[in-house]
Design brief:
six-stranded mixed β-sheet, single chain, 4 helices, two-stranded antiparallel ribbon, alpha+beta
Length: about 170
């Protein structure tokens, strides 16, 4: 299991199942269980996002906390189309068109490549595609780190026990 710290309210949107990707500045070859950690930093402008309003952002939700593990997901793929101008897997393997659309809005084939990762995808970012997201029954206070990181074994054990108790075996 690996972990990633995500700013609020984006971490909340992932944990509640509204956002199925994490916009990152770097790719990764890692695939598998990914612990979503709500960082101690907040994206203050995100609260005004139409996506957050549509998702029902609630700062009073326990998963809107800071400095805690709040969800477990599967990292299935990384879309690089918006970064590289072409769809290639993170390890350099061709991904066909990887969900990318090639051509301008008029269909003129001007070579512009846009991925089809959805409204939550930021241009110029690597889109870490998430699935099988399970919000934790309660946040688990933990220190995060930048980038992909290995959570301490005690944190992993707490999360696994919590999910088993809740009947969300992975």
């Amino acid at each position: 299991m690996q972990a990633i710290s995500v700013r609020q309210p984006w971490a909340w949107a992932i944990a509640r199942g509204h956002k199925t990707l994490s916009n990152q500045s770097l790719p990764t070859v890692y695939r598998g269980p990914l612990l979503i950690h709500a960082s101690m930093r907040v994206d203050l402008k995100a609260g005004d996002s139409p996506l957050m309003h549509t998702a029902g952002w609630d700062p009073g939700d326990p998963l809107a906390t800071l400095g805690a593990a709040i969800a477990l997901a599967e990292l299935d793929d990384v879309c690089t189309a918006s970064v590289r101008g072409m769809a290639r897997g993170a390890a350099g393997r061709s991904a066909g068109n990887g969900g990318a659309e090639i051509g301008g809005a008029d269909g003129g084939g001007d070579g512009d490549v846009r991925c089809s990762c959805g409204a939550w995808a930021e241009p110029g970012a690597y889109h870490w595609r998430l699935s099988n997201v399970h919000a934790l029954p309660r946040p688990v206070v933990a220190l995060g780190r930048p980038g992909l990181w290995q959570p301490p074994s005690a944190l992993v054990a707490d999360v696994e026990t919590m999910l088993e108790t809740a009947g969300l075996n992975r």
